[in-house]
């Protein structure tokens, strides 16, 4: 009996030495798995089971500001992940702090916007604090592509499926994080892949403004 107890004790001691202790206090970095805020390192927060930038704090630890427009990449590569949800008038809208990577032919949805005073956007354009006539070829870009204003005043080339192309100046952000308030004229957050163009842009592309949304590609001009 005493011999058996000694053998069991020796066996348990051997297991303790061989099997490493669980890293209970280990914290995940960008896109690492998480269940609570404490599971993420530094200023990262747990969003949909993965550690990511905190949109309220405005951290860009997981997002780069280069040609990709600050997109947060998933482990499978290339995709911008939803950062939260905004409930507006009983409907839930996704929020994004990033957009898909910018390339020489970036897929996007072209929407129609009135940049004039009293138009769709509420206040003046963010880049120059001015209103713009509908005859001007101007656009607003989704938050990730707007990239904190780094593309303000720059020209982009937009190409429609009909083969026609035009250039337009970036003057505003199509906010993918906030909306449904006075500042955004009651409109919900933009999708993360929007080029919001003036009537002049639509006309130059030979598109019907009554359609409202069309698939296009864009690149820096």
TrEMBL record:
Alphabetical list of PANTHER family matching this protein: RIPENING-RELATED PROTEIN 2-RELATED (PTHR33191)
- UniProtKB keywords: Secreted, Signal
* Source species of the chain: Handroanthus impetiginosus
Q: Where is the signal peptide?
A: 1-26
Positions in coiled-coil regions: none
Note the InterPro entries from the entry.
Kiwellin-like, RlpA-like_sf
What this protein is called in its record is RlpA-like protein double-psi beta-barrel domain-containing protein
Which one Pfam family would you cite for this protein?
KWL1
Q: Where in the cell is it found?
A: Secreted
Q: What is its main location?
A: secreted
